Amino acid sequence: MRKFLLVLLLIVVLVAGGLTWFVTRKPASPFDNVAAAQAPSEQLLQQGEYVARLGDCVACHSTPKSAPFSGGLEMGTPLGSIFTTNITPDKETGIGNYTLADFDRAVRHGVARDGQRLYPAMPYPSYVKMNDDDIRALYAYFMNRVEPVHQASKPSDIKWPLNMRWPLALWNAVFTEPGTYQPKTAGDERWNRGAYLVQGPGHCGSCHTPRAITMAEKALDESSPLYLSGALLDGWYAPSLRADPNTGLGRWSEEDIYAFLKNGRNEHGVVFGSMADAFNNSTQFMSDDDLRAISHYLKSLPGDPARDGTPWQYVEAAANSAAVPAGQQNPGAQTFIAKCSFCHGIDGRGKAPWIPPLAGSTSSLAKENASQINVTLNGSGRVVASGIPDAYRMPPFRQQLSDQQVADVLTFVRSSWGNHGGPVVADDVKALRAHTDPASSSPIVLQMR
After folding, report:
1. Around Cβ 65, how many Cβ atoms within 10 Å?
2. What count of Cα atoms within 13 Å lies in the side-chain half-sphere of residue 114?
3. Is it the case that residue 327 has pLDDT exceeding 50?
4. Helix axis angle, 426-435 relative to 370-378, nearest 10°?
5. What is the Rg, in whole angstroms, of the alpha carbon atoms belonging to the chain?
6. In sequence order, what E strands does 239-383 have?
């Protein structure tokens, strides 16, 4: 018996030691023995600037009141709020003391210089697919072209023991896939470039792929039909980017996708919510070749008829119901005529490409109603294309409409013109009203130089 207990104790010690080593080790980096260039070339710096645009680093690591990349943006999670960190080259509060290998580990593996694990709100499960050249260029840009800002990062408000970071090493081992993007022989050069941009620096799956109870993305590439199939995140519903005709891009052509990413609008819709930030600082600055590669890749992703349902068709009679005598109207129709019809049209068709249609819009057909509630309560941030702010900004109605009025008007919209998104109840509006704020009229638009 004593011998058995000694053996058991030895096994426990070995397992504990192995676990401790595993959760505290720093992942290897191909740059571990590489010294950073003292004077990076202008070409490398321009490439790094472009990669920063591809990754839209500024959208998360800045706020309307802070300096670029100095952090402080609050991000809600089921466990509590976390705040983005200062990634300027300040040596005390930023990443100024990071080597190229340290930077690589943070970006592609979610491990800070001191060994602390980063929460996967930092999209390293996607960034791990970035190639070495892009990482090297991005590091050169941050260290040489970003102004250092002395601003300490805010601690999260996640309570102990859930705020312990070492279990994230185990999470990473189970829910992330190692290795940079490898071209697929089934796709041509344009398809593979689009796949790299979407899966890697663009980290589109971070918002548009549903997550499991573990908060891991349910898929990381096109091998699963769940990849980019739509997800609810932080008060917004990021729609499917697959060929779903109702809740995705099934009715969009490659040219439509290109126009949306390039101009922030097309005949189907206008960027709003989190996508407005992505457009303002990222997609509009991408090259035409890269935007067309993304469009080509996304159009290759099949939809799911079982999930998406019968394709939407416009129903004229539903539009006319809003024009009946006032005494016969339901409250939602009355509010729509008073508050919405001037811009979006009594027929719900909008005035594309400047004012989006509500008839057949993804947000009117999706079962998730968060985006429509959010944008109705809080409006949309300004779309800034080529340095010019949009003149047709969606205004906030949280001060003008009660929870019940918002629920009524959205129920009307979601059941008119052939829309079948389902009704909205006042409690849904109340919950989002309490946890969201009006969109800022001063968008973050970073001038790189």
Report:
1. 9
2. 8
3. no
4. 60
5. 24
6. none
Peptide bond into 353 cis (omega under 30): yes
Q: Do residues 119 and 170 make contact, with C-beta atoms less than 8 angstroms apart?
A: no
How far is Cα 83 from Cα 95, in angstroms, rounded to an integer?
16
- Cα distance between residue 268 and residue 283, in whole Å: 18
CA–CA dist 76, 83 (Å, integer) = 9
Query: 293: buried, middle or exposed (CB in 10 Å: 19+, 13-18, 0-12)?
Result: buried
Element (H, E) at 371: helix 370-378
Output the six-digit token pair for 244: 């779903």
> CA-CA-CA-CA torsion for 183, 189, 193, 199, nearest 10 degrees?
-40
* 52 alpha-carbon distance from chain centroid: 15
Question: What is the number of residues in the chain?
Answer: 449
Number of Cβ within 10 Å of residue 5's Cβ equals 9
Nearest to 122 by CA among 24, 55, 182: 55
Q: Which of 140, 23, 35, 128 is nearest to 89 (CA)?
A: 140
Q: Which two tokens stand for residue 106?
A: 């943070």
pTM for this entry: 0.91
Instruction: Give pLDDT, residue 315.
Output: 93
Q: How far is CA 21 from its chain centroid?
A: 33
Type and span of the H or E element at 111: none
The C-alpha atoms of residue 75 and residue 301 are separated, in whole angstroms, by 29
DSSP H or E segment with residue 275: helix 274-281
- The DSSP letter of residue 338 is I
* Residue 449 in this model has a pLDDT that exceeds 60: no
Q: How far apart are CA 204 and CA 241, in angstroms?
A: 9
Looking at the chain, the number of H-run helices and the number of E-run strands are 20, 6
The stretch 253-262 carries a mean pLDDT of 98
Cα separation of 145 and 48, whole Å?
9
pLDDT at 187 over 60: yes
Q: Which stretches within 146-273 are classed as H helix?
A: 167-175, 189-199, 205-208, 254-263
H runs (alpha helix) in 56-152 = 57-60, 100-104, 124-127, 132-145
Place of tokens 């899966």: 199
Share of the chain above pLDDT 70, in %: 90
